[in-house]
Amino acid sequence: MSEMKLPKIGLGTWMLKPYEARYSTIQAIKLGYRFVDTAQAYRNEKGVGDGLQEVFEKGIAKREEVIVSTKVSPLSIRPKAAVKSTYKSLKRLQLDYVDIMYIHFPAFVLGYSHKKTLGALGELVDEGKIRHIGVSNFTPQLIKDALEVIDKPIFANQIEHHPYLQQPEVLKFHKENNIFQVSYSPLGRGKALKDSVINEIARKNKFSAAQVCLAWVIDKGAYPVPKATSLDHLKDNFAALDLQLSDEDIQKIDAIDKHERYVHPPVVSPKEWKKKNNL
Ligand SMILES: NC(=O)c1ccc[n+]([C@@H]2O[C@H](COP(=O)([O-])OP(=O)(O)OC[C@H]3O[C@@H](n4cnc5c(N)ncnc54)[C@H](OP(=O)(O)O)[C@@H]3O)[C@@H](O)[C@H]2O)c1
C-alpha cells in the first residue's frame, strides 16, 4: 500500500454551495480534520480552495498535512478532457497538486476507458499534479479489469457504505488488494440516524447516532467522509474518533443491513442519466 496514510475521517462536501464549502473546510480543519473531499461535479471546488488557502495562510495547517481529493466529472471522462479538467480543478482549488484524483463514475457511455482515461491520469501522476489515482463507484470486477491494463496502482475506491448498505464482500476485496475504501454517505444520507438500534447504542454509550454510524464504518477499516454544513455537525462527526464500539454493538449494527442504496450513480442507469443531462 502507498505510503500516504488516510486520516480516519474526512469532510464530504456534496451539495455544499461554494460559500458553505469554504466555511465547512475552514471550520473542519480548525477542528482537526485533515482530509477534504470534493468533485468537479459539486461545483464547489473554488469554495473548498478558498477555505484551504485561508487555513494555509493563517498557519492553521500546512498544505502537506491535508489530504485533498476531487473527482473527474463524467462529462470530462475522455482522456484529454480528464487532463484539461484536472488543470481546471487545480486552478479552482488553488493547489499545485491534489492528493487523490478519482474517476467519479466509470461512465463508459461517455467515453470512459480504463486504459486511456486512467492512463491519462497516470501521466498527471508522473507530472506531480496528482499524488494518487482513485476510482469511485467501481465494482471489484471493474477494478480487476482496470488493474490489468494500467501500470499505476489504484489508491482508493470511494463507494456508498453505511449501516444500511454494508457490502462486506466489497470491503474484503479492497483490503485484499490494498485499496483504501473511502465510505461515502456514511450516515446513509441521514436515514440511518433514525434507526432504533443505532439510537439505542448511541444512548447507552452517550454518543450521538451519527457518531455510532461513523464509529461502525471506522471499525470496519473504512474511511468515512460525512458531509456537514453546521459547526455542531462538524464537531459531532469528528468526535466519533473517541468512540470505540464493543464487539456486541458492532454485531448489532451488522444485523441491521438493509442492502439499501441512497445514491444512484449513472453507471447503474446510464440511459436515464444521459436523457436527464441532455447528452
Ligand atoms: N463518489 C460519489 O459518487 C459520492 C456520492 C455521494 C457522496 N459522496 C461524498 O460523500 C460525502 C457524504 O455523503 P452525503 O453527503 O451523501 O451524506 P451523509 O454524509 O451520509 O449525510 C449528510 C447528511 O447528514 C447530516 N449530518 C451530518 N452530520 C450530522 C450529525 N452529526 N448529526 C445529524 N445529522 C448530520 C447533514 O446535515 P448538514 O449538512 O445540515 O450538516 C446531511 O443532511 C459527500 O458530501 C461527498 O463528499 C460521494
Structure description:
The protein has 279 residues and is α/β, with parallel strands linked by helices. The chain has one domain (11-276): NADP-dependent oxidoreductase domain (TIM Barrel), CATH 3.20.20.100. It is 42% helix and 14% strand. It has eleven helices and eight strands. It has helices at residues 18-31, 45-57, 79-93, 114-126, 140-149, 168-176, 196-205, 209-219, 231-238, 247-254, 270-276; strands spanning 11-12, 35-37, 67-72, 98-103, 130-136, 154-160, 180-184, 223-224. Strands 1-2-3-4-5-6-7-8 form an eight-stranded parallel β-sheet, with helices on one face. The model has no long low-confidence stretch (mean pLDDT 95). Residues 12-14, 37, 104, 136-137, 158, 184-190, 193, 208, 210, 225-230, 233, 236-237, 263, 265 line the site of NADP nicotinamide-adenine-dinucleotide phosphate.
Strand and helix layout:
Elements lengths: L10 E2 L5 H14 L3 E3 L7 H13 L9 E6 L6 H15 L4 E6 L10 H13 L3 E7 L3 H10 L4 E7 L7 H9 L3 E5 L11 H10 L3 H11 L3 E2 L6 H8 L8 H8 L15 H7 L3
Parallel strand pairs: 1-2, 2-3, 3-4, 4-5, 5-6, 6-7, 7-8
Helix pairs in contact: 1-2, 1-9, 2-3, 3-4, 7-8
The chain binds NADP nicotinamide-adenine-dinucleotide phosphate.
NADP nicotinamide-adenine-dinucleotide phosphate (NAP) binds next to helix 9.
